[in-house]
Automatic annotation (TrEMBL):
Annotated signal peptide: none
Entry-linked SUPFAM superfamilies: Homeodomain-like (SSF46689), Tetracyclin repressor-like, C-terminal domain (SSF48498)
UniProt DNA-binding residue ranges: 37-56
Residue span, HTH tetR-type domain: 14-74
Name listed for the protein in its UniProt record: TetR/AcrR family transcriptional regulator
One term of GO molecular function: DNA-binding transcription factor activity
Amino acid sequence: MSSEKNPLSPRIDKNGNLDILIAAAECFMEQGYHAASIDDVARRLGSTKGRIYHYYRSKTELFFDVHREGMRRNFEAVTPVMKGPEPAAQRLSAMFRRHALSMMENLALEAVVVQGVEMHRFSATTPEQRRTLAELMTVRNDFESLFKRVAYEGVEDGTIRTSDVSVAVKVALGAINWLSIWYRPRPSETRDDREILADKIVESIMQGLNAPG
């Protein structure tokens, strides 16, 4: 995270080309990385594939930027509630809740984050790709560390009780990240519906930590 180039910085201007990333994320989620093609992304965009190749040399580079955007949204969701006067358990609960909502509201992007990196760790062949994958894995670890940091504070202030913070946080994030596998929004679903589901998930997680939800 401290390198000269922020690993979350996209190769392109997100504001002008976010639709490329969203279309690619939807293709990767629905078809899988190997089956989806640049042609598929272009068709979803209603454009030529030349527009995509103007910014990306390969499907792998496009995948990396989808991952970056998904992680950027994760950080953006949870960091505002990390600090404050509230007990650590309350802040950790808020972080889990925001992450769950981010998963549901950015489903295609987050599905790529959850399902894709491990696959690419073994399929990337160039030194540049391997360097990028290492950066992206570091970003994911940094994200997990945010939750560990607050959980340790909870152990110290007595609002969280667990024998192993690292395992507890991994289990909790795994439960939330699994939304990318089983969750699909209903046609009539509202923000309130997603908040209710997020609350139920977080309540179960916090009960496992012997802490108030």
